[in-house]
Design a protein that fits this description.
The protein is 49% helix and 9% strand. It has six helices and three strands. Strands 1-3-2 form a three-stranded antiparallel β-sheet.
């Protein structure tokens, strides 16, 4: 669901974070961005497999919104059977780079929780602003419990 601009500023945004959250708000959009950063030109079914728990309706809706926002490019090929691929635009690639420090913060937070006894968590092998691939096509930004959830469809417990 696209959020509406807030009143109070000429363009409806209070600050840059507000403008960014309008684009990436929601449970799945950032994870879709990471999956597309790992490898360009992904098909719908590939994205669905990489994001356990997302419904087809939500994935299709988010991809349409992200395309309208200029973050995702949809390429339809005129062949039989029809083929559609999704990739990041330059703007989407820059947005993913901006999310790199947030991913690093999240890994540190999860690693800190693991030291307290919340479970073993490994750090992903990604530098700020990049999203390398880990096991089973999981972005390396997702380490430990998140990697287990992506690869097994559930959080270890």
């Amino acid at each position: 669901m696209t959020t509406l601009n807030r009143p109070g500023a000429p363009d409806g945004h209070v600050c840059g974070i507000d403008a960014a959250m309008e684009i990436i708000g929601g449970k799945w959009k950032v994870l879709i961005l990471w999956a597309l950063d790992d490898r360009q030109d992904r098909r719908f079914g590939e994205l669905r497999r990489l994001l356990p728990g997302i419904t087809e309706k939500v994935l299709a809706s988010h991809l349409r919104e992200m395309e309208a926002d200029g973050i995702v490019r949809r390429t339809a090929y005129e062949e039989v059977p029809p083929r559609v691929e999704y990739s990041l635009t330059d703007s989407g690639t820059r947005l993913n780079a901006a999310l790199g420090p947030l991913a690093a913060w999240g890994r540190e937070r999860v690693a800190g929780a693991g030291a307290v006894g919340a479970g073993a968590v490994g750090a992903g092998a990604v530098g700020a602003g990049t999203a390398g691939a880990g096991a089973a096509g999981v972005p390396a930004a997702h380490g430990g419990a998140e990697r287990a959830r992506w690869t097994h469809g559930r959080t270890p417990g």
